[in-house]
Automatic annotation (TrEMBL):
Enzyme Commission identifier(s): 1.2.1.71
Keywords: Arginine metabolism, NAD, Oxidoreductase
CDD domains: ALDH_SGSD_AstD (cd07095)
Chain residues that bind NAD(+): G220, S221, S222, R223, T224, G225
Domain Aldehyde dehydrogenase: 9-460
Family matches, as PANTHER family: ALDEHYDE DEHYDROGENASE-RELATED
Stated name of the protein: N-succinylglutamate 5-semialdehyde dehydrogenase
Reactions catalysed, as given in the entry: N-succinyl-L-glutamate 5-semialdehyde + NAD(+) + H2O = N-succinyl-L-glutamate + NADH + 2 H(+)
Alphabetized SUPFAM superfamilies for the sequence: ALDH-like (SSF53720)
Coiled coil: none
GO MF entry, a single one: succinylglutamate-semialdehyde dehydrogenase activity
Gene that this polypeptide is encoded by: astD
Lineage of source species: Bacteria, Pseudomonadati, Pseudomonadota, Gammaproteobacteria, Alteromonadales
Keyword Membrane listed: no
Length: 486
């Protein structure tokens, strides 16, 4: 059974859907996508459940998400194993993904109170109250790279605020979503409060364009986010939160600890096989002998990165990309950059044909006159050599995206110079640019997002403020406005 609608598991009525273990090519899960009538039914179920869910009160909603957290804690081994099988990410990494899902619960409870809590101020006659209300029924779209953590990052705050949810996960990771929904059910999920519709484009479009949703929370590619924005046009009353990709720069200046700099570069560029929206795509290195030395050391360290089956011992740093098609796409991207004048320094190569296992690559693109402003979503790092800091900052900002950016420099003055000039929502100094904290807001500008940051600020887009002036009785004011006689 594939879809959870109104508390019942159903088979799909849409096209066939299969998911694979990308590290082996083995099929993992079969089903059929939800067709438009099932999307309709999911939205109707969410609508029917919504008021009761909101009126159940914050303590009851907190109790459900905490019960879900307990289910996650009891199931963390199997869930990490499943995420690893369906995404190809190493087990150590999927364990951290499940840890992030668990951590999201208390963080979201705190954020809900902090960002959207109630408050009261005394007025001469009565009081001014601030409360927040849920939007109603919200659609959540998730990507494949964190199939547990990223949809969870929208759903937990949405539920706490009193919304009901229709989740459309990535078609590449349906098994993880089905499993997670079973944990929600084991936690006592009331029927209709979360509905799961699986499927590809047809399901996604039916959900995104449905007049019955009050909000759409999307994490995924910039291309899809832009399409959704167009579909949403003309509905100013509805909330749309877009978390999209990036073409993220990392600038290196003078650093004493070269080994630490190489570590931060590798963690920024290649973690999760480069399949993080925050990954560094462009490394800006000075045109100096220190820049040469750092590059040589980076190339050496990149050759030594262990790429292997996700559950191999000793553990690999990276496992498989999401699919063999994605791996071939990265080979094609490298070829394209090469044809434009890029020089391959360390080739990105497919390890086992027919799988998503690829070795990370590094390409010098300094000579390319018009470098494509593309997010190549995989382990391919573009190196750009620069002459001075201002030029480096100009190149770093020469992108329509604006998700993450970083500076590796032992100079505080350089950080103070960089920070106000950088154009991104996440800007780090002497830290890798991946691995953002859930206790901070998370989002980008330009083609990376629409100023509805998630993580700690997800609470903001899950509810709207209601301001009330209240008094316990109707009372006559002491003075009347001019011209009134009563
Ligand atoms: N800023 C952020 O927080 C993050 C951004 N991402 C970005 O996500 C991308 C990788 O994830 P993908 O799963 O490939 O993203 P994607 O954009 O292909 O898909 C995301 C979701 O949208 C659905 N979808 C695709 N086309 C649609 C359409 N025309 N109408 C309605 N729904 C549609 C998909 O089925 C999936 O559920 C990368 O670009 C990455 O940078 C990933 C993680 C975090
Ligand atoms: O939402 C949060 O709790 C923090 C955001 C987060 O987890 N970011 C990760 C992954 C984002 C991605 O690429 O999918 C990161 O910054 O590495």
């Amino acid at each position: 059974m594939t879809h959870l609608i109104n508390g019942e598991w159903q088979s799909g009525q849409g096209p066939n859907l299969t998911s694979y273990n990308p590290a082996t090519g083995e099929a993992l899960w079969h089903g059929r996508g939800a067709d438009a009538s099932q999307v309709d039914a999911a939205i109707a179920a969410a609508r029917d459940a919504q008021l009761e869910w909101f009126l159940s009160g914050l303590p009851a909603r907190q109790a459900l998400v905490r019960a879900f957290k307990q289910q996650l804690e009891a199931d963390k081994g199997p869930l990490a194993q499943l995420i690893s099988e369906e995404t190809g990410k190493p087990l150590w990494e999927t364990r951290t993904e499940v840890g992030a899902m668990i951590g999201k619960v208390e963080l979201s409870i705190t954020a809900h109170q902090d960002r959207t809590g109630d408050s009261e101020k005394a007025l001469p006659l009565g009081r001014a109250m601030l409360r927040h209300k849920p939007h109603g029924v919200v659609a959540v779209f998730g990507p494949y790279n964190f199939p547990g953590h990223l949809p969870n990052g929208h759903m937990v705050p949405a539920l706490l605020a009193g919304n009901t949810v229709v989740l459309k996960p990535s078609e590449l990771t349906p098994k993880v979503s089905e499993h997670v929904l079973k944990l929600w059910q084991a936690a006592g999920l009331p029927k209709g409060v979360i509905n799961l519709v699986q499927g590809e484009l047809e399901t996604g479009k039916a959900l995104a364009s449905h007049p019955g949703i009050d909000g759409l929370f999307f994490t995924g590619s910039s291309r899809t986010g832009h399409l959704l924005h167009q579909q949403y046009a003309g509905q100013p009353g509805k909330i749309l939160a877009l978390e999209m990709g990036g073409n993220n720069p990392l600038i290196v200046r003078e650093v004493a600890d070269e080994r630490a700099a190489v570590h931060d570069i590798i963690q920024s560029a290649f973690i999760s096989s480069g399949q993080r929206c925050t990954c560094a795509r462009r490394l800006l290195l000075p045109n100096t002998s220190q820049g040469d030395a750092l590059l040589a050391r980076l190339l050496e360290a990149t050759k030594l990165i262990r790429v292997d089956q996700p559950n191999a011992e000793p553990a690999p740093f990276i496992g498989s990309m999401i699919s063999s098609e994605a791996a071939l796409g990265m080979v094609a991207a490298q070829r394209q950059l090469e044809s434009l004048g890029g020089k391959v320094l360390e080739p990105l190569t497919v390890v086992t044909p027919g799988t998503g296992l690829v070795r990370p690559g590094i390409i010098d693109v300094t000579a390319i006159e018009s470098l494509p402003d593309e997010e190549y979503f995989g382990p391919l790092l573009q190196v750009i050599r620069y002459d001075d800091f201002d030029q480096a900052i100009r190149i770093a900002n020469d992108t329509g995206y604006g998700l993450s950016a970083g500076l590796l420099s032992d100079s505080r003055a350089e950080w103070d110079y960089f920070l106000p000039r950088s154009r991104a929502g996440i800007v780090n100094w002497n830290r890798q640019i991946t691995g953002a904290a859930g206790s901070a807001p998370f989002g980008g500008i330009g083609a990376s997002g629409n100023h509805r940051a998630s993580a700690y600020y997800a609470a903001d887009y899950c509810a709207y403020p209601v301001a009330s002036m209240e008094a316990d009785q109707v009372v006559m004011p002491e003075t009347l406005a001019p011209g009134l006689e009563l």
